[in-house]
Inverse folding.
C-alpha cells in the first residue's frame, strides 16, 4: 500500500515536471513570436511617423502659400495678370 502510494506520488511529480517544462517551452516560443511582432510594429510606426511628418510639412507649405496669396490680394490689392498680359518663355 505504501509502495503504491510512493509510485503515485512519483508519477504526479513527474507529470508536474513535464507540464512545467512544456510551459517553459511554450512561454519562450510565445516570447519570441511577440518580440518579432514588436519589431515589425516598431518599423511600421517609424514609417507612419515619417509619412505623417511629410504630410504635416506639405500641409504647412500649402497653408503658407494660401496665406501669402490672401495677404497679397487683401492687404496689397494684387491681382492675377490677365492671360493677354502673360508671357511664357520657353528655352
Amino acid at each position: 500500500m505504501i509502495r503504491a502510494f510512493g509510485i503515485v506520488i512519483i508519477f504526479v511529480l513527474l507529470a508536474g515536471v513535464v507540464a512545467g517544462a512544456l510551459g517553459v517551452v511554450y512561454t519562450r516560443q510565445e516570447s519570441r513570436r511577440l518580440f518579432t511582432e514588436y519589431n515589425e510594429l516598431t518599423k511600421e510606426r517609424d514609417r507612419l511617423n515619417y509619412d505623417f511628418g511629410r504630410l504635416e510639412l506639405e500641409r504647412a507649405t500649402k497653408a503658407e502659400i494660401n496665406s501669402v496669396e490672401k495677404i497679397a490680394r487683401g492687404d496689397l490689392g494684387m491681382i492675377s495678370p490677365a492671360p493677354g498680359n502673360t508671357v511664357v518663355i520657353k528655352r
